[in-house]
Fold these 4 entries.
Entry 1:
Amino acid sequence: MSDTTYPTSRTLGRVQGNKLGTRKQAKRTTPSGTVITVKVDSKGRLLIPKSIREKLKMTTGDVCFLTLDQALGILSVAKAENPFDGLARHAIREYRAGQTKSLRQYVKERGVEINKDE
């Protein structure tokens, strides 16, 4: 058995028991989350484990942002979201809570007349 030390070992500690490259993943839970060991393939790809993809609701074709903290040697992955999806969810919540108005109500409150002939 070998120990794998991460560049951020002062905060994450050490993962005991699994060598990098074995099928079984080294996993450790820390105060900041779960650390899982993955291997880079010959094309430079990382496989995000199914359990993580499910938690983030990631599906094929999703876009992610990668952030590199070179000083600490940390690569962060964040699932990107279409901003219109967020706006749509917000609008639906407002509608269901009765916080929306029809265009006719909005215009009437502001004293604007609509020409029905045009």
Note: Residues 82-118 form one domain.
Entry 2:
Amino acid sequence: MKIRYKKRLVFLGLIFTVLFVINQFKAPVVIYLPFNLPDELKGTTIPPFGMFILEKYKGEKNPNACTVLQHEMEHWNQYRQMGLFSFHYHYLKEFVVNGRVNHWMEREANNSCKRKLKASKTLSTVQLKECLVRVPNFVSSIN
């Protein structure tokens, strides 16, 4: 029984070591998935492993709205600011309490994306209201 316990501790130690080393680089890895994500998501960010986006949004370009990649990049920036464990703790805690729609990290990513879009291009008020991230369950999608 003690040997199994030691093997588990060594295994957990290796996992945390790998996560620590990967966390030191903090460079985003974008992986385009050929299959759907659960809950009709278009993309998700799972630090330190990367950003996972559906393949059909690989070349997405929309001058009037944030793309899925831009939105997920905002989450990656949140992770870089907060750190690995703090990011996951606060995201999961808020997700359990408020869900995805009212999540403060989602609102912050949406607002940051809108600010960057507004700074890069002057938009009319109508276009700015339509400047929503095109990810279901975060905000309304634009078609």
Note: The longest strand covers residues 50-54.
Entry 3:
Amino acid sequence: MFILPLRLVLLEGLAIPEKAEALCNTLEDALVLENHTLFGESDHAGLWAKFKTAIENSGDVAVLVEAILDSLKTGVRAEFALNLLELDDPKKLQPPFYILDGLKWLSGQLTERQEDLGLIVTKVAPAAEEQPEA
């Protein structure tokens, strides 16, 4: 099991210091903490509903993280995954920072490889100087 530090934004309604940190154990808890507003607004059933209740009833980050982990013990993750696929506006769902960082790294690696193969050019050659007409 990996424990990943998660940078949090200020969660509305929770007593969280400006620089709070939560340790995430799963993709699900990282998603919930990164997208607390989205999970708090939606009316899905199952794990999603448990996460919404946890957000509404938690007074601080530690309580919220514990409630999310308790929900994961009895919830059906497949149903939760289907709820994610059924979002009306999937662009509202923000990936956890560690996934976003990994995607940025991968993009950089791919760009580097494409440059090495000559498939793309990232440096623009200076324009040729114009010669005055005689």
Note: Residues 97-116 form the longest helix (20 residues).
Entry 4:
Amino acid sequence: MTAPRKRHFPFTAVNGHDGPAAARPTFRHTPARRSRIGDLWIVAVLFAIVLLLLLIFVLQNGQRAEVAFLGVHVALPIGVALLLAAVIGVLLVALPGTARIVQLRMRGRRSATPAAEPTGPGPAASPATGTAAHQGG
């Protein structure tokens, strides 16, 4: 069996006196650290609020509008048409950003791997000048 843990309570003077009231432990509450689950919960709640606002927007803008794109003609509610336009706009912005992120990650991986030193035949570098030694012939 394990021994019970000793609990240490910080004591501070109450109202500036060290009398019997000061003998009571006062607890100092440390703020809770943020966690990934807590952050995920906040994001999920915000996402639900945004979805609710989008649903209200689509339901309030139910009038039909004729939409023509690349020869395709469709009659959609205005709310749905605007929502589709916004989603397509976000995707058009995200594509170049994603390509740049992939490019930077590939560059980072290349620079993180150590370069193999040449072991084959060839001109050796001169330590003094940093240039290849001339082999006369």
Note: The chain has a mean pLDDT of 76.
